[in-house]
């Protein structure tokens, strides 16, 4: 899936987080649709799952050999450059509520 949107200025974690959460919710919707889950139930499940996944990235940790690691979403340009600040971006979930509503502003290619 590829999504596109227009904005003024350069993208930052917040803009990309909105698009990412919408992509997650759209992918989940596709799975639920294939399982013939009724649309409104699927929409609720997809939004809830997208939010839960965002919480996982923001608040959960993995401990290995006495060190703690935190999963993060990192955005990388087509040139291979990571957007600075991924390690500190611990509020992905703030952009996950109503993720399917945010998808209305995106141009989606599958």
Write the SSE topology.
Layout: E1 2-4, H1 13-34, H2 39-59, E2 62-64, E3 67-69, H3 99-102, E4 107-109
Antiparallel strand pairs: 1-4, 2-3
Helix pairs in contact: 1-2
Give a structural overview.
The protein is of the alpha+beta class. It has one domain. It contains 3 helices and 4 strands; from the N terminus they run βααββαβ. A hairpin with a 2-residue loop joins β2 and β3. The protein starts with a strand and ends with a strand. The relative contact order is 0.25. The model has no long low-confidence stretch (mean pLDDT 93).
Descriptive keywords:
110 residues
Low-confidence stretches: none
The separation of the N and C termini measures: 5 Å
Major pleated sheet: 2 strands, antiparallel
- Radius of gyration, whole Å: 15 Å
Structural class: alpha+beta
Neighbour order of strands in the largest sheet: 1-4
Question: Beta-strand percentage?
Answer: 5-15%
Number of distinct beta strands: 4
- The count of domains is 1
Helical fraction = 40-55%
What is the ordering of alpha helices and beta strands? EHHEEHE
Question: What is the overall number of helices?
Answer: 3
Mean pLDDT score, rounded? 93
Q: What sort of overall outline do the alpha carbons produce when their principal axes are compared?
A: globular
Provide a concise account of the structure shown:
The chain is built from three helices and four strands, in the order E-H-H-E-E-H-E. It has about 110 residues and is α+β, with helices and mostly antiparallel strands.
